[in-house]
Design goal:
CATH class: Alpha Beta
Strand content: 15-25%
Structural class: alpha+beta
Distance between the termini: 14 Å
Radius of gyration: 17 Å
Number of strands: 5
Helix content: 25-40%
CATH architecture: Roll
Number of helices: 4
Amino acid sequence: MGTNIKVSDVMKSNVIVIPAGAPVVEAAKLMSKHSIGSVVVIEENEARGIVTERDIIRKVVASNKQATVEVSKIMSSPLIVSSPDITVEEAAKIMNKHGIKRLPLIDDKGYIVGIITENDILKLLPSLIDLIEERSLIGQ
């Protein structure tokens, strides 16, 4: 991409979290209520994993498990995280390397401060292309 746009400039800072011991049905309700595709699982105020709609479908519904199973039993872990100070390009590289669509962002104390998704990056793409074209026209 070749830009220096920081993840902190485009991340969502209202990350929806759920305690590790909560039932999957509560995760599904949170996702529905907030029109989101994932919730970050926390334990002792630290991000430990992530539960996505796909996790619920594959690991609960398709496996005939009860929706009362704890989210910690189906979450994707270890959680791949980064700092909000990286660039969008660096975030995209991390996500591509690990095959993930969501990258939770933590501060230097380990607290979750935001999340950036594949869709967030794709929404930026037209603007980034325009910016790159403008820079090439003015010789930067």
